[in-house]
Amino acid sequence: MTSERVFVFVDEEELFSVMKDADCLYCRIPVTASKQHLKKRHLRFAIYYKDAGIGRFSIPCYCSDGGHGRSHWHCPMCSKILHRTQNYKIHITNHGVEMTDKSSVSDGNKLRFVSKFSPLPAELQPTTVLLESLQTHSEDKTPGSKAACQKCGILFTTTSNLRRHERLQHGQDQQPILCVDAKNAIYVTPKYLHGPRVPIHIRKSFTLQILLCELEECWDFMKAQAQSGNPGKECRHLVRTNHAQHYVPPPPLSVRSLEEMRDKHLLSASEKHECQEMNSRACVQGVDCVYPVFWGEHDLPERCVFFSVYTDLEDKWCQFGRTRVSFDSKSGSWKCLCKHKRSRCVHKCLCMWWLFQERPELLQDALDVHPERALNDDLC
């Protein structure tokens, strides 16, 4: 009975014509060899390859030769029976065939079918541009071909993976995130996707087992997720740490620049002493006293300059030991989250110290007016 059966075919129509709705020759139990049966039982698991440049495919068999109706493979080149698909692939490869996929076999057979006809008239011949585009399309579909991301250069084997990468890593909704304190795993990222991009502080560390966000709504979200059996679920701000930039220390504050500010009467003696003391505490803790945030470097509005300032305490306005100070470079107004919002505080003085030292041009408008007024104005 084995000699009456054929286990290799050129296309599906050849298989259907051999069966012709008779009993299936490849099943131990008698069953009508309908197209639905052949597709579901045999073609679904077919192995495609090329032999001497001709596309072919083999189908699994369930006859009694395999024992108890177990699926097996009959080698078309020899009489050997193999029970595992991988062993069958290795076996027929040793016979000199080339493993491929279904599309390659069907496309190759279609090309051979067209070649039997006479050449097309000159006016119907494909142009060079069309041939090049078809060749490029064929190369893109070749197994193992890789598509590169235009922004970071990472290679992907499929276009869908490339699109997913571009959406998640380079999407329009992606917001910048900066590490301002590597020791305590503190980051800053925009609170919302619109407006001046006011930053908030977040903490994320797998070593310290910390997942914290300053926003109360994010706390409620993560708490609800934990109660629902999904602990460790991160808010939208914490998720951004997956593409956070490496910590880059800012220029340290210099005592010399502080002396210059005192000589120009930009700071009082008591304010100078408070700034020095706060900076010393930050140095002892091994953190930056002032960390500037320039969103303009990340293609965002650059009118406002934000600072993450060390506070040496934890409160509602500085939950992680740092607070936010804002400076409007056009109006010269300042804003701080501390209890002294409408008065001159040490946090504003520290930020003014850093700007005076590193970016004095941004303070030009603020220095044109009285420094007391410049530091007392609120940022709208």
UniProtKB/TrEMBL annotation:
Zinc among keywords: yes
Transmembrane segments: none
C2H2-type domain sequence ranges: 147-175
Keywords, sorted A to Z: Metal-binding, Zinc, Zinc-finger
InterPro entries xrefs: HMGXB3, Znf_C2H2_type
GO MF entries: zinc ion binding
Name of the protein in question: Uncharacterized protein LOC109083444 isoform X1
Record gene name: LOC109083444
